[in-house]
């Protein structure tokens, strides 16, 4: 899911805020948000859709003239990278126009259709979704043809995303997984389901996964950024993206 890209995009957008100057609060705020969205779109590439940026503090526009703008919320409805589509929603707090922030967080949401393409072979063919609380996997048990829905708990930590079977629905009856697997011929079903931990790749220093949740839109992974990671990522983004976020810069787009 390229969480590092989320960090780079979030911090690069901070520099764009300084482009605004003069006029009323509303005009300055609108201009600053336009420039932040432009910088975000540049770094996400041409495939990104629904890119937006918003300064949420009162008088945020006028604050850009002092170098401190408060909270910046940026995101994109759809980003495609390395063959995977996902949504990004980030909030940066204590934002300064020098490209720093006191704290930040982001949520990366991957749709269930995308997850279905990447299920491990043990459960490939089952359909992922949610019942409002769990990550669900719906399909059949082995070669029996019996339809089941497995209800899984999800969590995220330093080792990655962990999916743990909690219970199972069989023909409208909810039962513990152990009850189902105790039946003749069902013992191998538990081995297919896990629990399993999937790595989420190497994260930049100062970026920590804080949780995971099965939502109506897909599987959402939450991350927290330290101020040090925000500052260092901002420098990396300026050097590597080729996007000009300064006043009057047109910006070049990169994936």
TrEMBL record:
Residues 228-244 have a biased composition (Low complexity). Residues 245-255 have a biased composition (Gly residues). Keywords: Signal. It comes from the Bacteria. Residues 201-255 are annotated as: Disordered. InterPro entries: DUF2993, TAT_signal. Residues 1-26 form the signal peptide. It holds the Pfam family LmeA. This is LmeA family phospholipid-binding protein. It comes from Streptomyces oryzae.
């Amino acid at each position: 899911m390229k969480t590092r890209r989320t960090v780079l995009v979030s911090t690069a957008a901070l520099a764009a805020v300084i482009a605004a100057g003069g006029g009323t609060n509303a005009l300055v705020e609108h201009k600053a948000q336009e420039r932040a969205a432009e910088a975000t779109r540049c770094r996400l590439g041409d495939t990104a859709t629904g890119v937006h940026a918003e300064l949420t503090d009162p008088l945020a526009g006028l604050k850009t003239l002092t170098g401190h703008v408060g909270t910046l919320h940026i995101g994109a409805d759809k980003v495609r990278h390395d063959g995977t589509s996902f949504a990004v929603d980030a909030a940066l707090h204590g934002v300064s126009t020098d490209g720093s922030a006191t704290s930040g967080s982001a949520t990366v949401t991957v749709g269930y259709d995308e997850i279905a393409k990447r299920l491990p072979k043990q459960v490939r063919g089952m359909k992922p979704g949610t019942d409002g609380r769990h990550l669900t996997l719906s399909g059949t048990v082995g070669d029996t043809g019996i339809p089941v829905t497995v209800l899984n708990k999800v969590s995220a930590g330093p080792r990655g995303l962990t999916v743990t079977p909690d219970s199972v629905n069989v023909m409208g009856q909810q039962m513990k997984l152990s009850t189902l697997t105790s039946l003749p011929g069902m013992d191998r079903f538990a081995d297919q389901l896990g629990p399993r931990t999937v790595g989420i790749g190497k994260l930049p220093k100062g970026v920590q996964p804080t949780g995971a949740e099965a939502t109506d839109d897909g599987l959402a992974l939450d991350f927290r950024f330290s101020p040090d990671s925000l500052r260092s990522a901002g420098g990396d983004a300026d050097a590597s993206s080729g996007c000009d976020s300064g006043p009057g810069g047109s910006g070049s787009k990169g994936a």
